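User: Show me an example of a complex going from sequences to structure tokens.

Assistant: Sure. Here are the input components:
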Amino acid sequence: MQKIKKLGYSFYSGTDVVKIARSLLGKILITQFNGIVTSGRIVETEAYEGVTDRASHAYNGRRTSRTEIMFDRGGKAYVYLCYGIHHLFNIVTNKKEVPHAVLVRAVEPLEGIDAMLKRTGKKKPGFTLTRGPGNVSKALGIATSHCGCDLQSKEICVIDDGFRISKNNIVASPRIGVDYAGEDAELMYRFFVKGNKYVSGKTA
DNA sequence: CGACCGATCGTCT
DNA sequence: GACGATCGGTCGA
């Protein structure tokens, strides 16, 4: 039996969001809504570095009712609607008033695959089930109504089950879909597990 | 394959 | 009134 522990505030309150995004690879994201448990191992993340990052919703200190939760302490969920269809799940990091966040772009399904199939309307488990941020939220049942949810709660949390990914199996790349961010679009703020079939976009 | 396109709506200008 | 931190289907090479 390996050691399993829920990630706490000390993990999320770290000041280096890029490092946290990398550390989240291999951790397990669990949701429990209405008694239904679904979980998956995180295999792809992106860091959004708040006020200095043109790709971030909080760039230049932009603070609105939508982005308000990012200014809270690390360890909260930031969920927002993209393209009117997709609910994207982010983890708020750093201290209060520092709006850093990590977008979870892909997980590898573990528990509750039946529930995931039901939620996504897919018939068979496949690599597209939890590939890409829209699909992750859909499969795990995360919606904008969960924005602000505390990751110490039983509804949404991340655990470390002792699984480790070796350094040479972690790849860094520019983020996806942020071409509007100018030079910041080139930052190597995306991390994923080399060769994992659930990783979205180009895996080179 | 890759390129293109429609869906769909809250948020910000 | 325009526009996304997207997805999946379709079309053509």
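The lines above are the inputs; the final block is the predicted structure for all three components together. Residues 62, 64-66, 80-81, 83-85, 144 of chain A lie near DNA strand B (CB under 10 Å from a C1').
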